[in-house]
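Customer escalation, tier 2.

The customer says the design service returned an amino acid string that "doesn't look like it belongs to this structure." They asked us to rerun it and document both sides in this ticket. The original structure tokens are below, unchanged.
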């Protein structure tokens, strides 16, 4: 861990968390210390980010002066390719959801556009959480399932952030002339799948994960400067994607649990699925 090897840190953290959970109440003092440390580090990161605009301005100005406006063209191409990837990802999510839930998934997509737009403008998927929960319940997902699946999704199903982390890491590697073999790229994806779990749904949270991953593959962390100037524009897209993917996930789980969303959806209404024993009890009463 002294060499900032992120994979070893992740494995150690998993075993530490399991051990703390196993001993129960005796671990509470350590858990409180770790929780306090997390808040301190987040506050420290916030102070550092206050000076980030000046740092990014100076770094990008120096980069343009040294290499010309071609750097801006490369950044523009990167943004275009990333949003094209997000468009394909949305199409896949909607297609898979339609196969499971039915054609009425289009109604959910329209309903979720409002909280997704909020996440897009604020660059925070957590800001759209209340609106997403409300839209899911109006669509027909029970409050029990929506309030259970959605928070879990915000910790373990940040599809947009995961896509960005892998996209950005490969971009920085190419910009720094670091060749990644196919095996290294697969390993990188596996590491990002682990390190992105529990990522905060707040602006610029992905940058922390990317910085930790770069060192594992001997990619200069200074390459992050190439992205910091355009990251706010990319953050909006991945935040909206996180909201959409979690809403689709909640609808799919709801469908698996036998809930019905109205005309145009697969499955039967809950009242048509009552067990025989339950039906007989109603008749007797």
């Amino acid at each position: 861990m002294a060499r900032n090897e992120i994979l070893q840190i992740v494995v150690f953290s998993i075993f530490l968390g399991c051990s703390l959970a196993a001993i129960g109440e005796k671990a509470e003092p350590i858990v409180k210390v770790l929780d306090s440390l997390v808040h301190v580090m987040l506050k420290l990161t916030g102070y550092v980010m206050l000076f980030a605009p000046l740092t990014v301005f100076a770094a990008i100005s120096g980069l343009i002066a040294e290499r010309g406006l071609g750097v801006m063209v490369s950044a523009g191409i990167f943004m275009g390719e990333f949003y094209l990837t997000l468009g394909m990802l949305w199409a896949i999510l909607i297609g898979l959801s339609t196969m499971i839930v039915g054609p009425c998934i289009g109604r959910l997509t329209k309903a979720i556009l409002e909280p997704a737009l909020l996440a897009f403008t604020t660059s925070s998927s957590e800001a759209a959480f209340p609106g997403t929960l409300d839209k899911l319940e109006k669509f027909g997902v029970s409050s029990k399932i929506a309030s259970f699946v959605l928070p879990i999704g915000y910790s373990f199903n940040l599809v947009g952030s995961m896509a960005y982390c892998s996209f950005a890491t490969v971009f920085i590697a190419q910009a720094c002339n670091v060749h990644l073999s196919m095996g290294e790229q697969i390993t990188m994806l596996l590491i990002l799948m682990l390190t992105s779990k529990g990522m905060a749904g707040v602006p610029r949270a992905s940058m922390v994960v990317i910085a930790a991953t770069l060192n594992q593959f001997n990619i200069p962390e200074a390459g992050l400067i190439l992205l910091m100037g355009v990251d706010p524009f990319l953050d909006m897209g991945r935040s909206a994607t996180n909201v959409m993917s979690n809403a689709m996930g909640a609808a799919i789980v709801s469908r698996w649990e036998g809930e019905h969303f109205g005309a145009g959806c697969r499955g039967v209404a809950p009242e048509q699925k009552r067990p025989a024993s339950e039906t007989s009890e109603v008749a007797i009463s």
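Tier 2 assessment: The sequence is consistent with the input. The domain at 68-256 is CATH 1.10.3860.10 (Proton glutamate symport protein). The first helix runs from residue 6 to 23. Sent an explanation to the customer and offered a walkthrough call.
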